[in-house]
Amino acid sequence: MNQSNASHFSRIARALHWTMAALIVLMLLLGAGMIAGDPAQYSRYIVWHKSIGVAIFMLAIVRLLYRLRHPAPALPDDLSALQRLAAHGSHVALYGLMLALPLVGWAMLSAGGYPVALLGGLQLPAILAPHAPTYAALRMLHSVLAWSLFALVMLHLAAALHHGWVRRDGVLATMARWRG
């Protein structure tokens, strides 16, 4: 992602970041609840899971378009080339997962012959014909991508805290600036 000379992300970028962070955490919790929770609650969780997935997908598109027009603040000059590559690569991976996971979930449900019914009664059209082997493969892929997102979010959080508490280089403050 491009970088700018700004000292912090804009209010819009911060609002998108923190809204999506909350939705992603909620989504991961819902996913875990669907797998390990009360089977009687599954149908309630799945409608929320699908709806939040669509919201994340749409916000990821908005966020990516916004980010392309409003680059991130520059990283500290003393970061190594490897650290810069890791920062860039992890952000690309986060955006990729925020876009891929909902699409894979939608394709999986379509291949399983399940409706993609959202809150408010909206139903998305199937994007694949029902096909059990495709459903099974996409279900596995959806799980792998979800675990990858979880791991990457934890890594992102660890890196942010490292910048804020250990390096104290202002990187965390670019996104955690609550006023002004």
From TrEMBL:
MF annotations from Gene Ontology: electron transfer activity; heme binding; metal ion binding
Superkingdom of the organism of origin: Bacteria
GO cellular component terms given for this protein: plasma membrane
Topology of the protein relative to the lipid bilayer: Multi-pass membrane protein
Entry cofactors: heme b
Keyword check for Nucleotide-binding: no
Domain (Cytochrome b561 bacterial/Ni-hydrogenase): residue spans on this chain: 8-176
Pfam families: Ni_hydr_CYTB (PF01292)
Location within or outside the cell: Cell membrane
Keywords: Cell membrane, Electron transport, Heme, Iron, Membrane, Metal-binding, Transmembrane, Transmembrane helix, Transport
Gene3D superfamilies: Transmembrane di-heme cytochromes, Chain C
UniProt xrefs under SUPFAM superfamilies: Transmembrane di-heme cytochromes
TM region positions: 12-35, 47-66, 92-116, 136-158
GO biological process: respiratory electron transport chain
Similarity field: Belongs to the cytochrome b561 family.
Name of the featured protein: Cytochrome b
Organism: Solimonas marina
